Amino acid sequence: MGQMPTWDQFMVAVLQLMSDGAVRGIRDIRTTIARAEVLSEAQREEVLPSGQLKVDNRIGWAVSYLTRVGALQRPARAQYSITDAGRQLLSVHPGGITEADIRALARAGDEWWIPKASPARGVAVTQTGIAAVEEVATGLDPVEQIEQGIARIQADVAADLLGRLHAQAPAFFEQAVLDLLIAMGYGGAEGRASRTQLTNDGGIDGIIDQDALGLSRIYVQAKRYALGSSVQRPEIQGFVGALHGNKAGQGVFITTARFSTGAQKYANEVPTPVVLIDGPKLASLMIRYGVGVQVRRTVALVEIDEDFFE
């Protein structure tokens, strides 16, 4: 099984489907083409971080660009049909249509997406009314490019987060962990957590309420370990022992490192509920709940409001 077709590789399939002259909705187009393509089950179920199916997203962009150059038309709201230009495009490129092929069909007033040379850098850029965006030679559609870029930024921030947490004092790390749990909605009605003393804490670094009345509590152990190291089974056994010593029914072990297979297996089998959060998961949660990070810029993705034109 090969890779899923890129968004532009779906354009021939779209035009072939529409060549019967029928008027179809975007959902029908996506479903029909997705079923017709030789895709694995995993590819059919692959989703973007936004939750949309990747195959639906790519087919949607193929339809969008074909419509932009007049190969498809919209006779009604969210309905599409092929045009003479679309039939001509399919006859000229039956084996595949590239982004460069449809750029050549750009109409007057729609030149914003055509790459222009950048004399300063010698690369192709797309001129918009706001900024010059470097043209990316990739098979990803625009939404995937954005989400891939966000993922790379978050991966870089996550690595920096773990490095900074590991460099701080134990008390700082323990408090940061409790702040995260509060941000996640724990801490009872008042959103509070208590950090135990640095000595003689019996292996418990923090206590946090799980419900509004404080009837159920979560006991926390937060330990900084070298980022490349693994927490072994004995440390989890010691934490479970501390839970029993405090008559605690559940606990969370959070670290900047990772957990060995033995540690994970023990946590899954022990009767006392123990949740293990390793470094990558910790950094991901901190980014998701805005602990230790701040939003530098918000990008709004817009689409046509069909109700406005109804």
Are there runs of 5+ residues with pLDDT below 50, and where? 115-137
Number of helices: 11
Structural class given helices, strands, pairing? alpha/beta
Please count the beta strands (DSSP E, at least 2 residues each): 13
In CATH, what is the class of the largest domain? Alpha Beta
Strand percentage lies at: 15-25%
Total separate domains? 3
CATH architecture of the largest domain: 3-Layer(aba) Sandwich
Shape: elongated
Structure description:
The protein is of the alpha/beta class and 310 residues long. The protein has three domains: 1-107, Arc Repressor Mutant, subunit A, CATH 1.10.10.10; 108-139, no CATH class; 163-288, 3-Layer(aba) Sandwich (Trna Endonuclease, Chain: A, domain 1). The chain is 40% helix and 16% strand. The chain has eleven helices and 13 strands. It has helices spanning 11-18, 26-36, 41-45, 54-68, 84-92, 99-103, 142-167, 170-183, 233-245, 261-269, 279-288, and strands at residues 24-25, 72-76, 79-82, 115-118, 123-127, 132-134, 193-195, 206-209, 217-223, 230-231, 251-255, 258-259, 274-277. A five-stranded mixed β-sheet has the order 7-8-9-11-13, with helices on both faces. A three-stranded antiparallel β-sheet has the order 1-3-2. A hairpin with a 2-residue loop joins strand 2 and strand 3. Helix 7 packs across helix 11 (279-288). The radius of gyration is 27 Å and the shape is elongated. The two termini are 43 Å apart. The model is unreliable at 115-137 (pLDDT under 50).
